[in-house]
Design a protein that fits this description.
single chain, alpha+beta, 2 domains, 3-stranded antiparallel sheet, 7 helices, 6 strands, elongated
Length: 166
Amino acid sequence: MTGTISKIVRFEDEEEFLDDMAEIMECFTYLASRYGHNPIEGILLWDYIGIQDDEGIKIFRIGEFPYIEGTLKVDYETLRTLERYFDEIESHRDDLSVEEISYFIEMLNEALGREIVFYEAYDLGLNRNEAYLILNIKALHYLDRVVDVEDRGVLDEAVRLLMKYV
């Protein structure tokens, strides 16, 4: 990961932040398809949870479990335990701290009898309204040097939005 930096970014309005990040990712994905480099190597929000299933780790946000439930490849008993625990935590989403989420994940893994649910935000020191962003500065400099005139506006817009948070 040479040329990368990691930064905790803060935001006031979560919906605005997510909209901005979606636009940034769309711009950089387009540019990466044309020029081969994407400066955004990763993003982790304070409420992202990972669940290991038969296919790998699937990431979702607290509150989204009902939407991904059909995509998890786990046995029925595991699925029901996950559902029961996530129903409980999602009912308190607006008041949760990262410490409480971390504790909840520990209890859930104990109930499952194995560690298949992951929560990294606590270990990274995130709080509410924060995200962990991994940027590849070399890729950004590369794009700045090679982007042609017709794509310059796309790059400039992505960087402008990114600078709101960095």
